[in-house]
Amino acid sequence: MSEHGRLPLAKLLAGLIGPAGPELTCQECFEQLDRYVELELDGQDAEAAVPGMHAHLEGCPACSEDHASLHALLAGEGGASRRTPRG
Amino acid sequence: MHQAPLLLDGRAPDADSLQWVEALSGTGPRHEEAVARLHRLLVRAARFELARRRHALGNGSSAEIDDLATQAAADALMAIKRKLGTYRGESRFTTWAYKFALFEAAVKVRKRAWRERELPLDEDGWALLADRGAAPDADAETSELIDALRRAIADELTPHQREVLIAVALNDVPIDVLADRLSTTRGALYKTLHDARAKLRARLAAEGHMPEAARKGGTQ
């Protein structure tokens, strides 16, 4: 059974009416996820680079979980060795 | 043969990523060694994901969890080989590869967690919504909003949109589990969910019930 009966109204509404504004599809989200997470971990404006990603992650629980997992995995690997400058 | 990754905004992929692509695109011992090394990384990523979701696996044995990790890594490796030509060097190769393993592991966890469960009935979701509107902490405005939402769900949505919205948003059914049961795809179901939500936002806005945080319209 769901726990929505105890959820704050804002969370309930977010699930029902979704995010405002344009958002990526699940496929587009998957294609951009690696780039988006690296930009986040580099402290860059990931949303500006991948418009609509944030809205999709708010609206899609499964993609949001994928994002959280990749973020956690990379963050756990440490920064310097993972993010050598490209060029 | 893999094409050289495109340069986006003038940047080349880092040297390590280029080595991965070259080795995986080639043949011989260097290719085999790269595939084996990649497989080890994918198993590690899959195990990481399964550990994060340990609670969803209930009483799954260590052997069963190892088997899930092995399956997820194998499926991820196949997907990576198939899609290697789409890698553009926009992230490090290992980051690009990890997402396949995490995705495959997450899907397997969700499906396993729901494998012996019936999908909740629409009525369960309706009851939750009604309960939320009638909760002791619900003020008049909240109750009105919930009532408006219930009417909008009943009046505006197709039966399929209603089924998907209630399952995912109210009954917490994972979207890929629902896609599996309905013989469709996660992307197609999310489009259905997106369209349903757009209808609800439009109806709430027309009735003056739109929550402040969601006043902006949007299309996918």
Using brief descriptors, characterize the structure shown.
heterodimer; A: 87 residues; mainly alpha; globular; disordered N terminus; B: 220 residues; Rna Polymerase Sigma Factor, Chain: A; Arc Repressor Mutant, subunit A; 2 domains; 0% strand
Describe the structure in brief.
Chain A has 87 residues and is an all-alpha fold. Chain A contains five helices and no strands.
Describe it:
The complex is a heterodimer of chains A (87) and B (220). By secondary structure, chain A is an all-alpha fold. Chain A starts with 8 loop residues before the first helix and ends in a 10-residue tail after the last helix. Chain A has helices at residues 9-17, 26-41, 46-49, 53-59, 61-77. Chain A has a domain at 26-79. In chain A, helix 2 runs parallel beside helix 5 (61-77) and helix 4 (53-59) crosses helix 5 (61-77). Chain A contains 5 helices and no strands. In chain B, helix 5 (122-133) packs antiparallel against helix 6 and helix 8 (175-181) packs across helix 9. Chain B is mostly helical. Chain B folds into 2 domains: 15-113, Orthogonal Bundle (Rna Polymerase Sigma Factor, Chain: A), CATH 1.10.1740; 122-214, Arc Repressor Mutant, subunit A, CATH 1.10.10. Helices cover 67% and strands 0% of the residues of chain B. Chain B is built from 9 helices and no strands. The interface between A and B is large, with 49 and 65 residues.
